[in-house]
Amino acid sequence: MSLIQARSWVRDSRRIVGFSGAGISTESGIPDFRSPNGVWANNRIVQFDEFVRNPADRIEYWRQKCLAWPDMRAAAPNGGHLAFVELHRQGKLTAMVTQNIDGLHQKAGLPAEVVHELHGTTLEAACLRCGDRISSDEACARVEAGELAPECRSCGGLLKPATISFGQPMPADVLRAAEKAASSCDLFVAVGSSLVVYPAAALPVVAKRSGAKLLILNRDPTPLDGVADAVLRGELGELLPELARAGA
Ligand code: NAD
């Protein structure tokens, strides 16, 4: 399977859904989870129930979050993010479903309503009781000022970065919108994801069963490679702009 074939699918397609994982942002300096220098190599993962039950785990979670926040905040989109913006500008990209929490698709220029963030956003913190939100700038300033695990100033509930932790339910409306997009596209382009985190990893199969072609772009093999119509290996910052140019 060649890039030339994939480019012809992009050219002929009218309703592309993009699906991104952490791999699209590594070239922006944000580590992924499962690569050798990824997040899991350097941090203890605090599960959702540990965050809720244990004050020491909440403090650890906020410590990790605020340590990473300055780099996350400063990260800029790369050629991979911009390629999806280009496909949207061409009128081909109907939705961008992302497992990422970094907001880089929107920072690159995709309208917010096109982006479905399955795992939430790290740009804000949300109260687990009343849903009130504050910016991560404000939350981390409060942590630095000594509130090691800040609480909601509206209701006193637990404030948590507005990301979906392991064991935390995913927002049903976002998942529904993503499934709807996946089941009505003609080309589903999954990039930079190990495709092992469910239910997100079911979406390529939803698209395929609904008649779309499935194209996977990733550096490493994924469990869905055998289901895909095509798999391209390489760096997304190079592959994605090549694909997007085909749609012009
Ligand atoms: P993952 O870490 O499991 O897999 C990333 C995949 O991307 C790997 O298979 C790797 O081979 C590939 N990859 C990395 N850099 C690449 C590049 N430059 N070009 C091509 N391929 C590249 O990531 P996942 O599948 O997204 O699952 C991890 C979970 O962690 C997600 O649910 C996400 O919410 C979260 N996460 C998000 C971010 C972020 O927002 N940027 C960062 C880390 C983790």
Describe this structure as you would to a colleague.
- The protein has 248 residues and is an alpha/beta fold.
- It has two domains: 1-30 and 77-119 and 170-248, Rossmann fold (3-Layer(aba) Sandwich), CATH 3.40.50; 31-74 and 122-163, SIR2/SIRT2 'Small Domain' (2-Layer Sandwich), CATH 3.30.1600.10.
- The chain has ten helices and nine strands.
- The chain has helices spanning 3-12, 39-42, 48-53, 55-74, 79-89, 104-108, 136-144, 172-183, 203-209, 236-246; strands spanning 16-20, 93-98, 115-117, 120-127, 133-135, 159-163, 187-191, 213-218, 230-233.
- The strands form two sheets. Strands 3-2-1-7-8-9 form a six-stranded parallel sheet, sandwiched between helices. Strands 5-4-6 form a three-stranded antiparallel sheet.
- Helix 6 links the parallel strand 2 (93-98) and strand 3.
- The radius of gyration is 18 Å and the shape is elongated.
- Nicotinamide-adenine-dinucleotide (NAD) binds at residues 21-23, 25-27, 30, 32-35, 38-39, 99-102, 119, 192-194, 197, 218-220, 235-236.
Write the layout of secondary structure elements.
Layout lengths: L2 H10 L3 E5 L18 H4 L5 H6 L1 H20 L4 H11 L3 E6 L5 H5 L6 E3 L2 E8 L5 E3 H9 L14 E5 L8 H12 L3 E5 L11 H7 L3 E6 L11 E4 L2 H11 L2
Parallel strand pairs: 1-2, 1-7, 2-3, 7-8, 8-9
Antiparallel strand pairs: 4-5, 4-6
Helix pairs in contact: 1-10, 4-7, 5-10, 8-9
The structure holds nicotinamide-adenine-dinucleotide.
Summarize the structure.
By secondary structure, the chain is an alpha/beta fold.
Q: Approximately how much beta-strand content do the residues carry?
A: 15-25%
The low-pLDDT segments are: none
The CATH architecture name of the largest domain reads 3-Layer(aba) Sandwich
Number of domains as seen in the coordinates = 2
**Any idea what the CATH superfamily of the largest domain is called?**
TPP-binding domain
Could you give a short account of the major beta sheet? 6 strands, parallel
Cα-based radius of gyration, to the nearest Å: 18 Å
Q: Which of globular, elongated, flat, extended, rod-shaped describes the shape?
A: elongated
Number of alpha- plus pi-helical segments: 10
Distance between the termini: 22 Å
Order of helices and strands: HEHHHHEHEEEHEHEHEEH
CATH first level of the largest domain: Alpha Beta
Mean pLDDT: 94
